[in-house]
């Protein structure tokens, strides 16, 4: 990777493509959330398929509504934690070798999703969720595009790490 003025690595090439993918994830997430808020009523499911509803929810907690009822302090805790993680992922992305394509893909998915949910927390105080999968009366916790990108990126990062691929 080319050296930037001052001896650091320049952001370009593979890193720029990763940030581009993160931006696409972020845009898809925010566009679908804007649509969900405008088209759906809070807590009122709209059946799409026998196992899938669109259900607008506000998640003040983390994954699976962890700490959702914590009294409000969790909002800024999650904002701070997500910001630190996003900075760490950004540094990691910039420092990756060009051949570490799979790691770069995973980190881009995680970064785009994390920033998408960060925007919700800062702007609204909660994360907009609306994808609701269910079977036999059991519902998977509702989620959004950002959550899906974070989950896919994290799972793939672990799988690729276990397989020794980068």
Write the layout of secondary structure elements.
Elements: H1 14-39, E1 46-49, E2 52-59, H2 73-95, H3 101-124, E3 127-135, E4 138-139, H4 145-163
Antiparallel strand pairs: 1-2, 2-3, 3-4
Helix pairs in contact: 1-3, 2-3, 3-4
Low-confidence stretches: none
What is the percentage of strand-forming residues? 5-15%
Main beta sheet: 4 strands, antiparallel
* Helix-strand string: HEEHHEEH
The helix content is 55-70%
Structurally, the number of domains stands at: 1
Provide a count of the helices: 4
Distance between the termini: 17 Å
Globally, the shape reads globular
Structural class: alpha+beta
Number of strands: 4
Question: What would your notes on this structure say?
Answer:
Helix 1 runs parallel beside helix 3. With about 170 residues, the chain is of the alpha+beta class. The chain has one domain (about 15-165). Helices cover about 55% and strands about 15% of the residues. The protein has a four-stranded antiparallel β-sheet. It has four helices and four strands; from the N terminus they run H-E-E-H-H-E-E-H. The longest helix has 26 residues, at about 15-40.
